[in-house]
Each structure stands twice: as C-alpha cells, then as structure tokens.
Amino acid sequence: MTTPDDAEKKRTPVAILISGRGSNMMALVEACADPAFPARVVLVLSNEPDAAGLTWAADRGLPTALVNHRHYPNREAFDAALDARLREVGARIVCLAGFMRLLTPGFVARWPDRLLNIHPSLLPAFKGLHSHERALDAGVRLHGCTVHLVSPEMDSGPIVAQAAVPVRADDTPESLAARVLEQEHRIYPLALRLLAEGRLHVSGAACQVRGAKSPDGALSNPVG
Ligand code: GAR
Q1: CA 219, CA 142: separation in Å to the nearest integer?
Q2: Which of 34, 160, 218, 224 could form a disulfide with 191 if both were Cys (CB 3.0 to 4.6 A apart)?
C-alpha cells in the first residue's frame, strides 16, 4: 500500500535560491503546493538578509536559510557554504530565482544538470543586467525570458524553455519587465516539472524535451 508519505518522498526535493523580491520563487512554491507536482520545496535560501521573498517563505512555514556572501572571504568559501546547506536538506534540484550572485565553476560542476536559472531575455541575447532596457535600446520586436540549465559562464547553458512577448512602441523598461515577468512565472514551473520528471536530455549545448509538443506556426510582431 502506498501512503501519502511515500508519495511525498517520491517528489524531487528542490531548493530555491533568491536575492530579493522572490516572485519566481513564489510561482515555484505555488506549483509545488499541488501534491501531484513532481517536486517539493525543501529550502528557500537567500544571500541577502533583507530579501522580501525570505520573509514571504518563512511566513508560509517553509524552511528558509540566509547565507550572507559578505561573511565569506571569497566566492569559493561562499559557494562551499551554499553547497553544504543544500546537501544538508537533501536537495536534488536547485532553482536560481533572481539569485544575483555568480556561482563558481566548482559549484556548478557539483550540480550537473540539476541547476536551473531563469533570465529575463531570450538567451543568448542580453545576458547580464538591465536586459529590458537593452532590448528596448536594440529595438527588438520580440523579447522574453529563458529557463536554462546552468553552465559556468554567466546566463549560459542548455535552454529548457523560453517565452516571447511583443515589444510595444510605448514600452518602458518597467512595462516590458512586467510583461516578461508574467511569462517567467509560467515557464519556470513548467521547466522544473520537466526536469523533475526526467524528461530533459542534454545533447551538446542543447536540451531535448521528451514528450512535449511545440506549438505550430510563428509568433510575430508587429501583427500585419
Ligand atoms: C527576474 O526577472 C529574474 O528573471 C531576474 O531577476 C528577477 C527576479 O525577480 N534574474 C536575473 O536577472 C538573473 N540573471 P523575482 O525575485 O521577483 O523572481
């Protein structure tokens, strides 16, 4: 007989790393609140003591941790402390959700194909900070967000999911960011589901998704 406890144990333990507001973390937590979702949250960790997301998670009774990077002499020591916390709670997947610290290659190597990141652009375009502002400056007609498996180089690694939004003539970085963020909250839980279900297969620089359909047709902007 399978008990609810057994079913819970089968869900992959996931840790979510944040640095601030935490809206993507909230979207992941909400997805994991469904007992049928293949992952469960075992830790929400922040490197910033004032991260609003940390309070949100603690208020909901989720296990939280603060690992303040300022308390470590270098990146290696900080990453070793992170790694120790993640292993302590038995995490099998780590989701970077607005986590604004670069991770060392050593850390990344310890989480092969188990480390996801979300970035607010259609990678490989606009890596790094201020992606919305730079997308507007570049005059792109479509912008968006990407969830990818993490490689040591910043905002790089096999792409799991992307969503595109139109850029409008009257967009500001803020209005564009808001349109993209809605899509972030949609594709991050989807990408976590695919990874937790073992449906991702990395082949070279690319990632194949087993058993998922892509929509037909094209997304274009402006509409004629
Ligand atoms: C999100 O837009 C996320 O994509 C971005 O920071 C924001 C965090 O918001 N991440 C990066 O820029 C990482 N390169 P949130 O704290 O509300 O999830």
Answers
A1: 9
A2: 160
